[in-house]
Amino acid sequence: MNKKELRIKYKELRKTLSEEEIEEKSLAVANKLIHLPIWEKNYFHIFLPITEQKEIDTEFILHLLAGKDKEIIVSKSDFKTRKMTHFLLTDNTRIRKNEYNIPEPVDGLEVPSSKIEVVFVPLLAFDKNGHRVGYGKGFYDKFLSECKDDVLKIGLSFFEAEEEISDVFESDVRLDFCITPDEIYFFK
Questions:
Q1: How many angstroms separate the CA atoms of 33 and 3, rounded?
Q2: Is 118 helix (H, G, I), strand (E, B) or coil?
Q3: pLDDT tens column, 37-79
Q4: How far apart are CA 114 and CA 117, in angstroms?
Q5: Is the residue at 20 inside a domain?
Q6: Beta-carbon neighbour count of residue 175 at 10 Å?
Q7: Is residue 185 classed as helix, strand or coil in its secondary structure?
Q8: pTM value?
Q9: Which of 63, 76, 87, 99 could in theory staple to 108 by disulfide, Cβ–Cβ 3.0 to 4.6 A?
Q10: For position 135, which CATH number holds?
Q11: Which residues are bridge partners to 186 per DSSP?
C-alpha cells in the first residue's frame, strides 16, 4: 500500500478504538519499552498525544521516564517553517493545545536537537523495514535529520507492521524500533 492509502486505513482503524482500548494498548506499549536497550541514555524526546486523533497515550511512558530520572523533552511545531523547537519538560512547563489540537509547551528551557538521544516517534502506520507513515507534514523527518546520527528512533503503534510501504522517499528517516501492544520490532 502507498502512504495515502495507509493514512486512510489507519485513521479509520483508530476511530474504532474505545477509550478503554486506547488506555490498555498504551499501557502495554509502555510496558514493552522496559525491554529496550535504551536506559543508559539521558535525553528522551516524547510527543504529547492528540487525543482527538486517538494517538497512543504517552502518559505511561512519561511516568516511566520520570521514574528512571530521565530528561524529558517535548516540542512546539511551527507550521510555517515545518520546524520543531524542543523544550525540557519540568514541573513548571505550561502545556497548551495549538490550533491543530497538539499539546505543546508554551515556553521553557530550549534543548538543541543534537542533545537528544532517544526519540519516541508518532505514526499512523509502519512497515517491516522500519519505514513509517505520519500525517504527511514532514515534521519528524526534518527533526530527525537534525539529530545526531546515533539517535534512537522508536515508533509507537497500536497496530502491527504492514509488509511494505510502496512509496518511500530517500528523505524518509527509518525507525530503529517500533513498539506495539504485542511486539517489539527491531530494524537495525
A1: 27
A2: strand
A3: 999 999 999 999 999 999 999 999 999 999 999 999 999 999 9
A4: 8
A5: no
A6: 26
A7: strand
A8: 0.96
A9: 87
A10: 3.40.50.10420
A11: 177
Express each pLDDT in 70-121 by its tens digit.
999 999 999 999 899 999 999 999 999 999 999 999 999 999 999 999 999 9
Smallest CA-to-CA distance from 34 within 71, 73, 72, 60 is with 60
Closest Cα partner for 87 from 43, 34, 136? 43
Q: Radius of gyration (Cα) for the chain, nearest Å?
A: 15
CA distance 111 to 169: 28
Q: Is residue 33 part of a domain?
A: no
Residue with cell 514541573: 91
Read off the DSSP letter of residue 51. Answer: G
**Residue 18 near residue 158, CB atoms below 8 Å:** no
Task: State the alpha helices, DSSP H only, in 98-183.
Answer: 139-146
